[in-house]
Structure formats: structure tokens, C-alpha cells
Design brief:
Elements (H helix, E strand, L loop, with lengths): L1 E4 L6 H17 L6 E5 L3 E4 L5 E6 L7 E4 L6 H4 L4
Parallel strand pairs: 1-2, 1-5, 2-4
Antiparallel strand pairs: 3-4
Length: about 80
């Protein structure tokens, strides 16, 4: 499973851009992309533009590959022990 880590004030394009690139690569192989949005807690996560996405907790399952979205909010999770 691939995970895209999001957090409050993440940049929406930084999460959806890489996810879309991998989705297309998997589609060309006639496979379904195993991509999941992950966050510290399950539920809605608000991007810097105010758009919210629904994410699963990374505590439930660790991904094989992790993409960390960028954005103004990255400073807080960068120092989080979890």
C-alpha cells in the first residue's frame, strides 16, 4: 500500500499530484492503485485552501511507500514523535 501523509494546512496539490501520477502508472498496468490518504487520526483533514479530505489513521496500517505532502503545516508533523 502507498500512503500519502496529510496534516492540517497541507498543500492540496502536494497530496493529489503524486497520488494521480501513481494512479496513472498503475492504470497503464491495468491494476488498481493501492493509494491511501493517511493522517495522525482518522477523519477530515483541512488543506491550506480550506478543502477537507478524509484520511485514515497511519496507526492502522503502515504503508510500504510513504509520500509526505508539503505545505505551511509541515513544520508541526516534522517534529512529531509519532
Amino acid at each position: 500500500m502507498m500512503g500519502v501523509l496529510v496534516f492540517d494546512d497541507f498543500q492540496l496539490l502536494d497530496a493529489t499530484g503524486p497520488a494521480t501520477a501513481f494512479e496513472i502508472a498503475y492504470r497503464l498496468q491495468r491494476k488498481r492503485a493501492p493509494i491511501t490518504l493517511l493522517a495522525r487520526q482518522t477523519g477530515a483533514v483541512r488543506s491550506s485552501s480550506g478543502i477537507e479530505v478524509n484520511a485514515r489513521s497511519f496507526r492502522r496500517q503502515l504503508p510500504d511507500t510513504l509520500i509526505v505532502a508539503g505545505g505551511e503545516g509541515v513544520r508541526t508533523p516534522a517534529i512529531c514523535a509519532e
